[in-house]
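The material for today's practical consists of a large collection of protein records. There is nothing in a record beyond a sequence line and a structure line. As an example, a complete record with its sequence and its structure tokens follows:
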Amino acid sequence: MTRFCTLPAEDSFHLLNATVPACLVDGLSPSIAPDPDGLVSIDFIISGDRIDAILPGGTADSARPCLDLDGSMVWPCFVDLHTHIDKGHIWPRRRNPDGTRAGALSSTGADRAANWNAEDLRSRMNFSLQSAYAHGTAALRTHIDSSPPQHKITWPVVSEIRDAWAGRIDLQAVCLEPIWGYADIGFGKEIADMMVEHGGIMGAVLNIQDDTDALLDTIIGLAIDRGLELDFHVDEMGDPEAKSFDRIAEALIRNKFGKPVNVGHCCSLAIRPQAEIDHALGLAVDANMRVVSLPMCNMYLQDRPEPGQPPRTPRWRGVTILHEMKARGIPVAISSDNTRDPFYAYGDLDGAEVFTQAVRIAHLDHPVGDWPAAITRTPADTMGLPERGRLKVGGPADMVIFRARSYSEFLSRPQHDRAVMRAGKAIDTNPPDYRVLDGRY
């Protein structure tokens, strides 16, 4: 894409009159007052690959090499906390026949068995990261299908790609396995040891089943013994009897896990009785849980008619209770989830799209407030990346610069002409051409 602005070529320069969400600036001077939308006018002094100073807008020396942004918005680079880049971009060869979660599971399983060798994974995962990087993402966590024998094929590729992308995207990976897979303690130990070997995170998928508590004790014990983090898929369905969110919190407390734990989806929580919601959120606070919501994918999959039934308009949006969680002090992030695969037919790992769609789907507006942190600062904290997701003096000169000057402008157009600065230099913001994947189909 053609960028709307050209960054100075010098190693040191000034960005003048930027509009920035105040919630994304560390150490903001009291002299820089936010407007009613929580936006501030700022001048940035860039020295090499770092931010050297943050000043009130219009006060930096304009005689130095500079770019006057004339009110254009500046954000830190995005942090995408929950993705599936091992599944990404298989849609052209394996569609979801009916748009349901069951259809997604069936189609993905068939494609995995037929096609997921190292070359196929490497090609599609690199394509996904190239897209994310071009759009302005600096850190990304992906869940990796890890049922045997796929785990032995995919995880070496994950380590290879993480090393290849170091310095551009901080890549983290979580093993994705149905919770019942841990009933085989031999496999549980094998996958836990593999996470140690490959720097991965323990994970599982939970919905409704009888032996959840015992299996949670198993996976938490495996993580404790090895000093591993945990990240769960939870209650991705529209059944109010799906209460694994509560079970996870209780298990973390019971096992004295101690570390923050990320959980994703939590869809069914939105349709449970209010008393149950209040109890569940109290448990989550006590268990030090963090939540990531996937608004685009959840709205796509949830509340579809059963296979064979006539088309039916969905009655709910599929998203969890973001506002209520945030009000209880639970850190809440938003993320891409799947891209062009049977779980979500669309998407491109674009943090700006994720934020825009989340605002519309989950009413993160009037005011927008500090919700921009949900795709930047909050997921960076969950990933343990204190340099990411914020703008601060001494921090990396990693920014996304949009033509839009306000939330009204930002949320009304796709911002395809954005500029992305990494280490103080403009990068190519053209995402890869889909044609490069033609050989995969």
